[in-house]
Design goal:
Distance between the termini: 20 Å
Number of strands: 0
Strand content: under 5%
Largest sheet: none
Number of helices: 6
Order of helices and strands: HHHHHH
Radius of gyration: 20 Å
Length: about 160
Amino acid sequence: MAANQSRPLRLIFNPAKELAARLTQLEAARTDLLADDEYASWRSSMLSEITGRPRMPRSRQITLALCGIACVGLLVLGVFRQSRDAIIGGAAGLIGAALLWFTFAYQYSVMGHLDRDNRLSVIDRLVEMRLVAEPEAADLRAKVRSAFPAQAGTLD
C-alpha cells in the first residue's frame, strides 16, 4: 500500500462508535433532563470534535488532578496512621484517577489526530445510524474539508 493512501483506522478507541454512543445517550436525556438549548449546546459540542482538534477540557483536568491529590493525601494519612483501609482506599482512588486521566487523554489524542478521510467516515457512520441528518452532515463535511486539506495524491 502506498504511503499516501489512507488505511482503515484500527484502534482500541473507535471514534465513530464512541460518538454515536454519546449522541444516543444525549438523545435519551433530551426528553427527561435537558432543555432544548442545553441539548443543542451539548450536541454541537460533541459534533465539533469531528470538525476540529478537541482537547481535554480544563475542568476535567482540574477535577481529576484534585481527585488524585486527595487520594495521595489519603494514602499518606493511611501510612502515618497505619490504617490499612485508608492505604487501600487512597491507592485504589489514585489508580482510578490515573486510569481515567490516561483514558481521556488517549481518546482526545485519537480524535485530535484523525485524518480527513477518517473524520468523513465518522460523519458517514453517524448519518447511517440516523444520528445526524444529511443537511447537517453536509455542513460537517464542509467544515472537515476546509479544516483538513486533502493529502497529496488523493482526490477531493
